[in-house]
Amino acid sequence: MPQRVPLDYVMTVRDFIAGTSASERTDAWEFYHYNAARSDVIGALRALPDTRDVSCTARPYHFTVQHARVSIVIAFHNEARSALLRTILTLYHRTQRRHLHELILIDDYSDDGDLMPDMLNLKIPPFLRNFSSTSPTPMTLTKSSSSYFTSNSQAAPPTNTFTAPTEVTIKTARNTRRSGVIASRNRGARLATGDYLLFLDSHCEVNVGWLEPLLERLAIGEMAGAAGGVAGGAPIAVSPVLDSINAESLEYAASSKNLMGGFDWNLHFHWIPRPQSTQQSQQQEQQQQQEHYQAEAQESLASLNAKTAYLQQFGWERKRFSEARIHRDTNTAATAFKSPTIAGGIFMISRHWFHKLNGFNPFLETWGGEAIEFSIKLWLCGGQIEIVPCSRVGHIFRKEHPFHFPNGTDSQTTYLRNSKIIAESWLDAYKYFFYASKPAARDIPINNTHTAQSSVEECTQLPAVLLVFAACFSATQTTQR
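^ Putative polypeptide N-acetylgalactosaminyltransferase 13, sequence as received from the core. Prediction below:
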């Protein structure tokens, strides 16, 4: 019988959430731009509906476990305690311990200076320092013993138990001044030691089975790159489907699996529908995929003969692997697809490639455009971006920025300056489309140092997929007006 959660476990969490400073409580909605009171009531952990396609739940995932250590970077400024804690605990309880290498928390000079110390003093895993695999009785959270975590929630009661894994490394840092999410994410990436970096916002809830599909897609990309003679594989970034968490009710709802990230000539991010192929071309594509993966499976099986023969004595059948791969990758509901830009700035990439690409442009200020800039850079440098439908992460989508921008600037001015740096760094002659759309950007001063990022090795001309999309989207917007 699983050990019950002691009363002080629950009360410790309540005390932590109640420790929000009085200044933040005065007008919580204006401070956070989501319903922080509702977030506090929901608590630290709740059950979520499984929003994956049914084909995602039965498929196996194949990747090299030895090289699947993930460093998760969360940079935040003035986040509600309950929302941040829920982000961390969903990661901890819904991620296999062998993949969760470390959590890196960067506090970008939040008003609540006690938030991080108070969180690290929580007597619950993963903050409980002496909780490890050597503990005599690992703590298990069950639906009957964690009423606080699901009380007053409209979600269905948990049908599974949340078993606390072994100890997880948590690295924390607090900026001595407001630096912005861009600089904070770069700082977190420098602290990371995992094989992969995953950048996540501080008001998210990961869903069941969210990580394995991302790991598999990166592993396949690395194998394909290695086969083509590219050391470390091809640069590829993967994003989950971002389910919507309503800012007012905090209800969790599934998002479409047929949306991808894009931008217009203003260099503003937009969700756009995934292009739908005709039935004939779709069937042709599936046939090509099947032939490709049949050949790949046969090649993989041949190389596995010497290495995995011992598994046959335990009843392992190589045929299963081949059939699973073919069936999985021809299923369009579960197949990853290319996207012009990263979906909402939440993505995972090889740590090696992130640093080789010089990370996020340090000359971009505070917030705005960093995901588009990194996306363009990734495509230019021979990489690609894909959205993986079988990976689901909930995200609170706010209509406005709750925080103030440093140096007396506002969000529009900061974003316009950042966009000009992106245009001058990467768009070459196409930057005139940007200036035609945003003539005010011509008057914003920048210098040559700000465009130094464009000297990354192996970067070529802007790929047609981005240009065509940007032009088409702008034309669509003009027509609609």
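The radius of gyration is 23 Å.
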